[in-house]
Design brief:
Blueprint lengths: L6 E9 L3 H9 L4 H4 L3 E9 L3 E10 L2 E12 L4 E8 L4 E12 L5 E11 L4 H28 L7 E10 L3 H9 L4 H4 L3 E10 L2 E9 L5 E11 L3 E8 L4 E13 L2 E12 L4 H5 L5 H29 L2
Antiparallel strand pairs: 1-7, 2-3, 3-4, 4-5, 5-6, 6-7, 8-14, 9-10, 10-11, 11-12, 12-13, 13-14
């Protein structure tokens, strides 16, 4: 029996994949941004064999949120329990569990349980949480199903690549250039328009129009998580037609001679849109090459201007 004012809900889905495989998706939080649409970034704060403490950055009802949770992992029972340590308003408290059940046909049933309360037990705030939990739970379970069922055969659609530039300057100056994206419209020729909102320090909404080589402009919107002065991670929430996923990071490693700056991208190709974007004769290989060239071109341009900025201040 729950506490007065506590809502208890359950979402479930059946997956054509072994229960142990599905459990692995739930247990390994580092991969969540590539699996679950609401997840932007996850970091381990403490990590033991069966218990861990994590910080999650995610979207909820179009807002960027961050919180810390404790998790208890039980691989024998295929169960992961979680409880938020410090919830973000309008959530007063939240916890729950992932339960994976093996089915006779070799598949599995995934049950996602939540219990939560609203700040001041306010009805409007509770309704906001209801919507966020329902939307995110459905999104996460659908993504879990798709990733688990396609894990064996979809590797060609996923690519990760790096571009690195050496800078004779400080990590702080490079970081400042990358962090201050509101100035990119003046600093980067390929950026036609930019809007940056940072209501919570280090948690940014970045929307920008980017020019491509052929002169066309496309709009992207990302959530960015900033860690001065060594990395910025991000996830696009408005994507170009050729992608179903795009996460990335700017990674800075400083030494006595300067700093190495790496732009890393992880992308999933939208196979259904290849012909419409690249023509009827194009396949996955052409889409991979096109996406990598486009992203690397812009990343290297940004890194080049960041290098000039930092080296001028040395």
């Amino acid at each position: 029996m729950g506490q007065p004012g506590t809502r208890e809900v359950e979402h479930r889905i059946e997956v054509r994949a072994p229960a142990e495989v599905v459990y692995g998706f739930v247990a390994e939080v580092a991969n969540w941004p590539q699996i679950f649409p609401p997840s932007v970034h996850v970091e381990h704060l403490e990590r033991g064999e069966r218990e861990e403490r994590i910080q999650i950055w995610a979207t909820a009802n179009g807002e960027a949120k961050t919180w810390t949770s404790r998790r208890a992992l039980d691989p024998d029972s295929l169960r992961v329990e979680f409880r938020q340590e410090v919830s973000q308003p309008p959530v007063a408290s939240m916890g729950g569990a992932w339960i994976i059940e093996a089915l006779a046909d070799g598949g599995s049933r995934v049950r996602l349980l939540h219990d939560y309360r609203a700040v001041d037990d306010d009805a409007d705030k509770l309704a906001w949480i209801d919507r966020a939990v329902d939307r995110n739970s459905r999104s996460e379970l659908a993504a879990m199903k798709a990733n688990a069922e396609l894990a064996a055969g979809s590797s060609e659609l996923l690519l990760t690549f790096d571009d690195t530039v050496r800078v004779d300057g400080s990590a702080k100056d490079v970081y400042d250039f990358l962090d201050q994206a509101q100035k990119w419209e003046q600093r980067l020729p390929h950026v036609a328009r930019v809007s940056l909102v940072e209501d919570t320090p280090g948690l940014q909404w970045l929307e920008m129009d980017t020019r491509t080589k052929d002169g066309s402009v496309h709009t992207t919107k990302s959530v960015r998580v900033c860690f001065p002065h060594h990395k910025i991670v991000y996830k696009q929430v408005v994507l170009p037609a050729l992608m179903t996923l795009h996460t990335g990071s700017w990674l800075l490693e400083e030494d006595s001679d300067g700093v190495s700056v790496t732009s890393r991208h992880t992308v999933a190709i939208n196979e259904a849109n290849i012909a419409g974007v690249l023509g009827p004769d194009a396949g996955v290989a052409e889409a991979r090459a096109f996406v990598r060239t486009a992203l690397s071109t812009n990343s290297l341009a940004t890194l080049g201007y960041a290098k000039e900025y930092a080296e001028a201040r040395r």
